Amino acid sequence: MDGRNHSVVFEFVFLGLTHSWEIQLLLLVFSSVLYVASMTGNILIVFSVTTDPHLHSPMYFLLASLSFVDLGACSTTSPKMIYDLFRKRKVISFEGCIAQIFFIHVIGGVEMVLLIAMAFDRYVVICKPLHYLTIMSPRMCILFLSVAWALGISHSLFQLAFIVNLPFCGPNVLDRFYCDLPRFLRLAFTDTHRLQFMVTVNSGFLCVGSFFILLISYIFILLSVWKHSSGGSSKALSTLSAHITVVFFFFGPTMFIYTWPHPSSQMDKFLALSDAVLTPFLNPVIYTFRNKEMKAAMKRSFRPLVIFRNIS
267 and 257 in contact (C-beta within 8 Å)? Predict the structure, then answer.
């Protein structure tokens, strides 16, 4: 008999972020504004890079790919969380919970690889500018994207393999606003301490390993810039600073959640909220406002709409 056949839990109840109505109202406004802004900003980046020939370069291809992933990051937990802020009883179906877990880990894995790819792109443009177009060829960009999705999907399936045959016959309350895999495992009607350890090690190793790869890459790039300072390097360094900012906003909350010794603290809830709504919003803001080419491309994209409106 498989795990689902002897499960009697068909839905899970979220406790949410807070029980205070005033704070819930504040979070509702805050999350709704950031969600709409995140979706709008990332759609604009994908649209601009796709339609503007001036942005058909490896750096912008990777940026558009990151924005596409951020659209998924916005949509995985935020709409459900915003909707639940209206409700006293916050529930999600068993299937919905599994789907959330799957997409959270897919998106996380893909985004980590894309950030590494973007760091590699900055390394090549700063340290090997004469060979940039040869190294960062369309084939290399597609390879990075394929590896990112392959790693994200395989990582997520590996995580879900831990819960396929688990019986869920007891409590169904999650002290979260989304389906968090470690806490989800604790609800199984069996001893899951070993599984929880393996899940934490798997996600923690991927997260911490990716972060240290990026950290070492940025240190190496900065050292190279100081040795060979030039106008082109200064421009590339400006773009690199945007990447570093995004990396710290993305990895900071995630690493805290998986390495903090007191997972029952309220702080990891708000750090998870930051990953869900704040980071996808900051990505387009940081990359757009610090990039003259992206701002010019957005103006070119919307110029025909303005002209058409004036004519009509």
Answer: no
